[in-house]
Amino acid sequence: MSNQELERSDSSASYSSSPYYMETCEKQWTPWLVPMFVVANIAMFIMIMYVNNCPTSNLGFGDKCVATFLGRFSLQPFKENPLLGPSSNTLLKLGALQWDKIVRQHQVWRLMSCIWLHAGIIHLLANMLSLALIGIRLEQQFGFVKIGIIYLVTGVGGSVMSSLFIQNNISVGASGALFGLLGAMLSELLVNWTIYSNKAASLFTLIVIVVINLAVGVLPHVDNFSHIGGFLTGLLLGFVLLIRPQFKWAERHHLPPCTRRVSKYKIYQYILWLAAASLLVAGFTMGLAMLFKGDSGNKHCSWCHYLSCVPTSKWDCAN
């Protein structure tokens, strides 16, 4: 794999279920959108490998394609792409994220298209397992509309932040959207704090999962800026879309007539909703304005590059 290719890696596949539960019996939605997203990503990867056509495109190189029995679906040489997938040129052709293509060639659609591309089989399996384990649970609780909006918007949020800080490489993967789902889970727990049991344990578990996943992002060839951007976008969207009515309002029909006048939401929920909505609009406006202006986030934050790669004696982040 070219050293200019950044994967959006995600190690949250070990997260099998929500660390908290609601104390009421509520409507459970039948998940279908998240499984469709999984199928769509797999189908897209098959198409990528068809277009890549390693036996033809790799002519003249010393290393042979991997799994040549697959014909045109065979994989790029392991030295070029250790994740077992296509070449960087193929990913770029099909919509990988690249600052130059977006800012100078005005290919804004890459902010969305890149989240449907994956650098290899390993990258695809890790992300799709995480998406199935996290997304299906959330869709059961909140329905396909809200989870679909969160997935797509946070994917774009991750792409915007990635473009602002990484301008010399390409980036692909759904990890920005996956971190967006994790961010939404965290804000949903906070905004609906009073209706959950085991609050402290639930919050600690979720924070540990997020921190571990973000820590993995400081390894080379991992686009941690897309993770951070997706997580922050999901955190704000969760406050806006995943707010739940308080128990007394939901059970007002069973209360005596004199106690039925109950507010649907608590004061702190209204405050969080308003603050999150304002920050979300302001963040996207500022981020897109900086991006289309051709500005670099590194100019305004001299240490932020360490958030995506920490140099050690084993690797050089400049490469």
TrEMBL record:
It is an enzyme of class 3 (hydrolase). It is found in: Membrane. InterPro entries: Peptidase_S54_rhomboid-like (IPR002610), Peptidase_S54_rhomboid_dom (IPR022764), Rhomboid-like_sf (IPR035952). One of its GO terms (cellular component) is membrane. Residues 106-242 form the Peptidase S54 rhomboid domain. GO terms for molecular function: serine-type endopeptidase activity. The chain crosses the membrane at residues 32-51, 115-136, 148-166, 172-193, 200-219, 225-243, 270-292. Its EC number is 3.4.21.105. This is RHOMBOID-like protein. It comes from Cucurbita maxima (Pumpkin).
